[in-house]
Amino acid sequence: MNVVHAPPDSARPDKAASKARLRLWLKILKVSRLIERELRERLRVEFDTTLPRFDVLAALYRVEKGLNMSELSAVLKVSNGNVTGIVDRLVADALIVRVPVEGDRRAMIVRLTEKGREHFSVLARAHEGWVNELLGSLEAADADELRGLLARIGAGHEERMAGE
Amino acid sequence: MNVVHAPPDSARPDKAASKARLRLWLKILKVSRLIERELRERLRVEFDTTLPRFDVLAALYRVEKGLNMSELSAVLKVSNGNVTGIVDRLVADALIVRVPVEGDRRAMIVRLTEKGREHFSVLARAHEGWVNELLGSLEAADADELRGLLARIGAGHEERMAGE
Asked: Fewer CB atoms near the end CB (10 Å): N or C, chain B?
């Protein structure tokens, strides 16, 4: 999101803080888009796969017993995927399976197959390597400091949500 | 993007740094999606508009003489908009106009109308206010520090691009 920068008004600290936060937001957006575009590209070129597929596999990797479709939808909301289409293709690729829920004959969950688990291990290792390279200009201590500052934004947001 | 966290291996500092960068990336992604979702929602609710429209208007606000379609496409690449459709609607709303390029009878540029300029001023002021609120848990000094650390990621990336 690009916004015109008005001349700084150093006589008004609240105005200066507002501009500092706006500049920060534009930088967060730029960096996240830059890295995300690079990761999408590498997933495509090196593994012929997509970020929504990666996100579904990652979510299922963490929950061995599997997830139902609405839990998966919540995961995919963030990567703009069409959950049914993605699940259908992952099933066709034998990376996940649909299984009935015990005690509820109409409900289904999806979970990783052994092949899916192995495939995701490979993807996750590559993904971590790419991130390590793309963020390589930051030492571990800087990365932790940056994460701590970002966490304050997230925490501030959650407090507001809880207060509404 | 969600990734399983292996147990930390504190005996290997490069491994620890890799995990720190991965955790940082997941946090950048989380915060940027959180803020962006909130901004999209407020643009929709309060102004019945979208982020791609906002981005086009912002780009044209900064360049009074206007931009051609490929310059606008570069702007919109980042917000996943369909440039032709967005431009058509902004023209229909009389916020922008298509004008011929001097000396090239086939080329057209688009630029803001007076109405478009006024409309964007209102949007930009609201947008800055939202960002100021959403990032309000950071003082100006923290915001600047955070931006400086993020700039190192961007700079590292640009160096790599130049070296390829």
From this structure: C
- From CA A70, how far away is CA A83, in angstroms rounded? 9
Which chain B residues are closer than 8 Å to A33 by Cβ?
Answer: 32, 78
Interchain pair A61, B4: CB under 8 A: yes
pLDDT, one tens digit per residue, over B55-95 is 999 999 999 899 998 888 887 765 556 888 899 999 999 99
Q: Write the ipTM.
A: 0.83
Strand partners, B104: B101
Q: Residues B87, B91, B97, B102: what is their CA dihedral angle, to the nearest 10 degrees?
A: 50
Side chain identity at A150, as an amino acid letter? L
Half-sphere exposure of B85 (CA within 13 A, CB side): 6
pTM: 0.82
Interface test with B, best of A19, A26, A31 (most B CBs within 10 A): A31
Instruction: Report strand pairing: A104-112 vs A96-101.
Output: antiparallel
Helix (H, G, I), strand (E, B) or coil at A160: helix
Q: Which residues contact A85 (CB under 8 A, 6 or more apart)?
A: none
